[in-house]
Design brief:
Elements (H helix, E strand, L loop, with lengths): L1 H33 L4 E7 L13 H8 L3 E3 L4 E2 L5 H10 L3 H4 L13 H6 L5 H7 L3 E7 L21 E5 L9 E4 L2 E4 L4 H4 L1 H15 L6 E6 L37 H4 L7 H34 L6 E7 L4 E2 L6 E2 L5 H4 L3 E4 L7 E3 L3 E2 L2 H10 L14 H4 L11 E6 L18 E4 L5 E4 L4 E6 L5 E6 L6 E5 L16 H15 L16 H5 L2
Parallel strand pairs: 1-8, 1-9, 2-13, 3-14, 4-5, 4-8
Antiparallel strand pairs: 2-12, 5-6, 6-7, 9-12, 10-11, 15-18, 16-17, 18-19, 19-20
Helix pairs in contact: 2-10, 8-10
Catalytic activity: Hydrolysis of the 6-sulfate groups of the N-acetyl-D-glucosamine 6-sulfate units of heparan sulfate and keratan sulfate
Organism: Sinocyclocheilus anshuiensis
GO molecular function: glycosaminoglycan binding; metal ion binding; N-acetylglucosamine-6-sulfatase activity
């Protein structure tokens, strides 16, 4: 009897165990089917400022992304470097320029060079996404030298992209060439067929229609707006006819006590320069109206295919811009807030609507945030940035804010004199006919931007003067007064040491923040 009972018990236990195992496997399969990875879209404009009103034309974008999610205050979102190719390289790699080694917009400056393609592109964040079964799409401007003969031509398609529709060279609106999955595609000047902002939108919509619903997607859309030549769509060429560049702050002010490049423009500016920059300012806004339409059409499409509520949408720019600040007509490249601050709006699952955040964010953080959303193990990713998902949705992630960061730039110049400006000699670039030059070889600088305990900018130039600029942006938000001779020398020494450490940092920036609180008391006394 006992052995019979034991046998029956063992048989029953086996049946129960088997049933439990089957149930567990069924549950696991069902649960895995229920876990849906979020889609991600990054919209990256070209030269769009936030300090000079660059988001004013973007009414639909502010409503559909900012009001539906989070807008980072223009005081807290920054680029790591204020120039196109180095900045875009920072976004793609999540690294500071001193780590990805792109110095400027030229091949010799490592912009889309063959060395970059071998050493940086294989570790860019789209490669990680693609390995995680994300379907990936790129449309628009990539890097300034992309597609040139010295950069491997249009045949080169960076790893990680399933669909590749990239502009060859710098921003244009008409009469450009694309690399479409490694094949050359030439375009003319027909608005319906060729206007680049609309083309990027239309191809992204086609990608959404053709994608597999079984896998998440990532799209990076990079329209040319509002970069020169500022060619607006026909329906917007008369918009903002009465608009002029803002006349407040540092507009038409002398570059007193600043680096020599800022001291050389004529002040006040001649009327010809003011008319030119006003026209540029107005036309920049006109081109942005098509980007605003792009955002609206994209969100309508996501809603129609029932993916809107499962999609994170980021809207930002590669750097800022200036129009008349410190008597510089138009450009970027400078260390001041108008060139380094950028717009940043994000919506997506778990992000509460109508938030305005004061958490400092850098464009090197975009890649880590996107990978965080995708579920990547960030500890295995070698990048300098950090995810800001915890700031947008603290109920999803725990995290910390960066109290400071690095801004760096390598100046460009010509070995011969500029014909427009022979009196200033060689070594200059981006010169205007009235002898105002926006760049030079020794316009090379590195800055520590502090946002905790004090709103402070400390910058050192690599020139024969070892020139230093320091600004207290709490009392002087337009950076009119260089206070380097007024602050405690002990603070200058501490900032110098912090700058040295930041310029040698690799990986998570908090590895380099060991003595931040040591100088907080100095900052409070500025």
């Amino acid at each position: 009897m006992a052995s019979s009972w034991v046998g029956q018990w063992r048989s029953s236990a086996w049946v129960v165990s088997t049933c439990l195992l089957v149930a567990l496997l069924t549950c696991t399969l069902r649960c895995s089917e229920c876990v849906t990875l979020s889609n991600i879209i990054l919209i990256l404009t070209d030269d769009q400022d936030v300090e000079m009103g660059g988001m004013t034309p973007m009414k639909k974008t502010k409503e559909l992304i900012g009001d539906a999610g989070v807008t980072f205050s223009n005081a807290v979102s920054f680029t790591a470097t204020p120039l196109c190719c180095p900045s875009r390289s920072s976004i793609i790699t999540g690294k500071y320029p001193h780590n990805h080694l792109v110095r400027n917009n030229s091949i010799s400056g490592n912009c889309s060079s063959t060395a970059w393609q071998k050493e940086a592109e294989p570790f860019a964040f789209p490669v990680y996404l693609n390995k995680m079964s994300y379907q990936t799409f790129y449309g628009g401007k990539y890097l300034n030298q992309y597609g040139s003969k010295d950069a491997g031509g249009v045949d080169h398609v960076p790893p990680g992209w399933d669909q590749w529709h990239a502009l060859v060279g710098n921003s244009k609106y008409y009469n450009y060439t694309l690399s479409v999955n490694g094949k050359e595609e030439k375009h003319g000047d027909n608005y319906e067929k060729d206007y680049l902002t609309d083309l990027v939108l239309n191809r992204s919509l086609h990608f959404l229609e053709e994608r597999s619903p079984n896998h998440p997607f990532f799209m990076m859309l990079c329209p040319p707006s509002p970069h020169s030549p500022w060619t607006a769509a026909p329906q917007y060429q008369q918009s903002f006819s009465d608009v002029k560049a803002p006349r407040n702050g540092s507009f038409n002010m002398p570059g007193k006590d600043k680096h020599w490049l800022l001291r050389q423009p004529a002040n006040p500016m001649p009327n010809s320069s003011i008319e030119y920059l006003d026209n540029a300012y107005r036309r920049r806004w006109q081109t942005l109206l098509s980007v605003d339409d792009m955002v609206e059409q994209l969100i309508k499409k996501l809603d129609s295919i029932k993916e809107l509520n499962n999609t994170y949408i980021f809207y930002t720019s590669d750097h800022g811009y200036h129009t008349g600040q410190f008597s510089l007509p138009i450009d970027k490249r400078q260390l001041y807030e108008f060139d380094i601050r950028i717009p940043l709006l994000v919506r997506g699952p778990g992000i509460k609507p109508k938030q305005t955040l004061q958490s400092p964010v850098l464009n090197i953080d975009l890649s880590m945030t996107i990978l965080d959303i995708a579920g990547a193990n960030l500890s295995t990713v070698n990048m300098d940035g950090q995810s800001f998902l915890p700031q947008m949705a603290p109920w999803l992630r725990n995290g910390t804010e960066r109290p400071f960061f690095l801004v760096e730039y390598t100046g460009e110049g010509h070995s011969s004199e500029d014909p427009s400006c022979p009196k200033l000699g060689p070594g200059l670039a981006e010169c205007f006919p009235d002898c105002v030059c926006e760049d030079a070889f020794n316009n090379t600088y590195a800055c520590v931007r502090v946002l905790k305990d004090a709103n402070l900018q400390y910058c050192e130039f690599a020139d024969n003067e070892s020139f230093v600029e320091v600004y207290n942006l709490t009392s002087d938000p337009h950076e009119l007064e260089n206070i380097v001779k007024k602050v405690d020398p002990a603070l200058l020494q501490i900032m110098n040491q912090r700058l040295i450490k930041l310029q040698s940092c690799t990986g998570d920036i908090y590895l380099c923040s060991g003595f931040f609180f040591f100088f907080s008391s100095f900052c409070q006394n500025i």
